[in-house]
Design a protein that fits this description.
By secondary structure, the protein is an alpha+beta fold. It contains six helices and 15 strands. It has two domains: about 150 residues, Rossmann fold, CATH 3.40.50.10790; about 100 residues, Elongation Factor Tu (Ef-tu), domain 3 (Beta Barrel). Strands 7, 8, 9, 10, 11, 12, 13, 14 and 15 form a nine-stranded mixed beta sheet that branches. A six-stranded mixed beta sheet has the order 2-1-3-5-4-6. The longest helix is centred in the middle third of the chain and has 14 residues.
């Protein structure tokens, strides 16, 4: 599983204006000097565990086997919540037991999880508020060095799981909601493209956002005019509402939690007809 140059991919809600990310990387490289450190994102909204979980879910399959994903979005820092390390799907993971990895782990049948018990790197002048540096970073670096998962602590059977909003599915209508908004203002929903396809069958579908009709699902942004709103299956496989060369969040004045509906309408269009 371990590569010639191990990769540690980091996600946090720390931003880049303070020392936090640099401190974590310094610890990582002190323990595993050969590591290639990749930034997933440090722009997660503070304490927004669901947003962090969605970002990890969106990209973890794109990393080569042996990558260590280090995630720190941790409102419970310093509390009794556990620190976890895990292995599954060809990757390893380190972070808090608050659901941050749960969208990945729910589909990982070979998953093994342990509680991180012996990787604290407490400094004499430090408190208990920076476990990203003092606990998670050294654990991730040790895994990148090739240590066995079981050396970090005892096995864990149950972990905290996040629950995405559940779609309401009827015969002619499917109701979902916006669960994320990316930096382009695209509105990401909890409705999967495959899910919609299985439900609609040979029927066409029409998407609405609240009382506003968006229209049929298009294949690419270029299928609509500049400035027009469209429904599209995005890179994460979920239904999104976007504005070509614009910002759907600002144009449509919608926030996370906004309601989205998909309705069956006649038969699906086919090319050449």
């Amino acid at each position: 599983m371990i590569m010639r140059r191990p990769i540690i991919a980091i996600l946090t809600d720390f931003g880049t204006s303070d020392h936090y990310v640099a401190s974590m990387k310094g610890v990582v490289l002190g323990v595993c000097p050969d590591a290639t450190v990749v930034d997933i994102s440090h722009d997660v909204a503070p304490h927004d565990v669901l947003a962090g979980a969605l970002l990890i879910e969106s990209c973890w399959r794109d990393f080569p086997p042996g990558t260590v994903v280090l995630g720190v979005v941790d409102p419970g820092v310093g509390s009794s919540r556990r620190a976890l390390a895990a292995e599954g799907g060809g990757l390893r993971f380190v972070g808090p037991d608050n659901g941050l990895f749960s969208l990945v782990w729910r589909d990982t049948p070979d998953l093994r999880v342990v509680e991180v018990a012996d990787c604290r790197r407490a400094r004499a002048d430090s408190g208990r508020t920076f476990e990203g540096r003092d606990r998670f970073a050294p654990a991730a670096a040790r895994l990148a060095n090739g240590v066995a998962l079981e050396t970090l602590g005892p096995p864990v059977e149950q972990t905290i799981r996040l629950s995405l909003p559940t779609a309401r599915i009827g015969r002619l209508r499917m109701d979902g909601e916006i669960i994320a908004i990316d930096r382009f203002g695209n509105l990401v929903t909890n409705l999967g493209g495959d899910q919609i396809g299985r439900w609609a069958g040979t029927a066409g579908v029409r998407v609405s956002l609240g009382r506003r009709r968006i229209g049929e699902v298009v294949g690419t942004y270029a299928d609509v005019a500049p400035g027009a709103a469209c429904a599209i299956i995005g890179s994460t496989g979920r239904l999104e509402i976007a504005v070509r060369e614009g910002n759907a969040e600002r144009l449509l004045r919608v926030r996370r939690g906004g309601r989205v509906a998909v309705e069956r309408v006649g038969r699906r269009r086919t090319q050449g007809r």
